[in-house]
Amino acid sequence: MTEKEKNFILRHIRSIPDFPKPGIVFRDITTLLNHAEAFEFLMQKLTERYQTYPLDYIAGIESRGFIFGAALASRLKKGFIPIRKKGKLPSTTITEKYALEYGFDEVEIHIDAFRGEEGCKVLLIDDLIATGGTAEAAVKLITSAKAKCIEACFLLNLLECQGTEKLKNLTPVYTILDI
Ligand code: AMP
Questions:
Q1: Does residue 99 have its Cβ closer than 6 Å to ligand 1?
Q2: Distance of alpha carbon 83 from alpha carbon 65, whole angstroms
Q3: Is the pTM for the entire model greater than 0.70?
Q4: Distance from C-alpha of 132 to C-alpha of 57, rounded to nearest angstrom
Q5: CB 3.0–4.6 Å: which of 59, 69, 100, 143 could bond 125 by disulfide?
Q6: For 34-149, where are the alpha helices, taking DSSP H only?
Q7: Ligand 1: which of 128, 139, 153 to mutate, judged by most atoms within 8 Å of the beta carbon?
Q8: Average pLDDT of each block of 10 consecutive residues along the chain (179 residues)?
Q9: What is the spatial distance between Cα 47 and Cα 41, in angstroms, rounded to a whole number?
Q10: What CA–CA distance (Å, rounded) separates 110 from 93?
Q11: Domains in the chain, please, with CATH?
Q12: Measured between alpha carbons, how far is 136 from 96 in angstroms, rounded to an integer?
């Protein structure tokens, strides 16, 4: 994507200081989603990139990864898999724990998310990568469910957190905006 195209998308992402707690600058994508032209432009770019990939499924991380992931899956005519916070998925799940700044969190995938097939090729998507802990746990879940993550895609990459460095050991990583 050209710098001009990246700037067009970036202009529609709002930064909210001190949310959800002091010191955090929250990158708010709702202002991109409610701008029809900017949202469509982003989805068109993602469609162009991934339409040549040999994908079977797209997996999105709760909750903003669901928005981009489901829209892309529909465009590419692929199935969509939600990776959710612990306790949200109703059937039998696999769980992966990951460290936060203080404490830990857990994400889950349905054990039969890939419909009983093995070796399915999966694109993982989320809005933002910071430390990479959530994405790393999500890739591990995909692997535990006997599928293969062929790329992890993020709209925003918080460079200072260096999450992509760690994640690159597990899967190829594509980020649109490095900030
Ligand atoms: P991490 O596991 O540290 O890479 O955090 C990534 C997850 O937390 C993603 O699902 C993001 O949506 C969310 N997240 C982390 N930091 C921010 C931020 N500054 N603004 C918006 N979302 C964030």
A1: no
A2: 9
A3: yes
A4: 21
A5: 69
A6: 36-50, 64-76, 133-144
A7: 128
A8: 97 97 96 98 98 98 98 98 98 96 92 97 98 97 98 98 97 98
A9: 10
A10: 4
A11: 52-178 (3.40.50.2020)
A12: 9
